[in-house]
Amino acid sequence: MSEKLAVPIDVAVGILMKPNGDVLLGQRPDGKPYAGYWEFPGGKVEAGEAILDALKREFVEELGVDVVSAEPWCGVEHVYPHAHVRLHFYISREWRGNPQSLENQAFAWQGCVGVEPLLPATIPLIKWLDELRK
C-alpha cells in the first residue's frame, strides 16, 4: 500500500436512541468487509448529497425507518485495511416505523452494549454514549 492515503469516504451514521437510552446496533451482513461485526447503521454519502439526507435514505433502505429528526453528534475518521472513512454520527430520538431487517442483517437494541465483536471505529463511541446517557 502506498504512503498516500485515499481521500476519506464520507459515511452518515445514525444512533436511534429510545427514551430509556437504549440504542440500535446492526450486524454487518455476509459479503461485506467485517461481516458479523456490530455497528451503528448508516452508509456512504452520495456525491452532492447532504449528510442528513444520506442518513435518512440509508435508514429507509436498510431498516424501513423514517428518521424524523436527528442532531449531529460527533465525527470520527478511521482507516480500515479496505477503506479510509470519515464517519458523521447523528443521534435521532424521533423516527417512524419499527426497524426491519431489509438487508438480512441482525440488529439489537442495547442499553449496556454487550454485542461483540464491535466494528473498531464504533468502540470509542460506546464509552462516549454512556457519558451522554448519564
From TrEMBL:
Keywords: DNA damage, DNA repair, DNA replication, Hydrolase, Magnesium, Metal-binding, Mutator protein. Its cofactor is Mg(2+). Residues 8-132 form the Nudix hydrolase domain. It catalyses: 8-oxo-GTP + H2O = 8-oxo-GMP + diphosphate + H(+); 8-oxo-dGTP + H2O = 8-oxo-dGMP + diphosphate + H(+). The keyword Magnesium applies. Pfam families: NUDIX (PF00293). Its EC number is 3.6.1.55. Belongs to the Nudix hydrolase family. This is 8-oxo-dGTP diphosphatase. It comes from Herminiimonas aquatilis. The lineage of its organism: Bacteria, Pseudomonadati, Pseudomonadota, Betaproteobacteria, Burkholderiales.
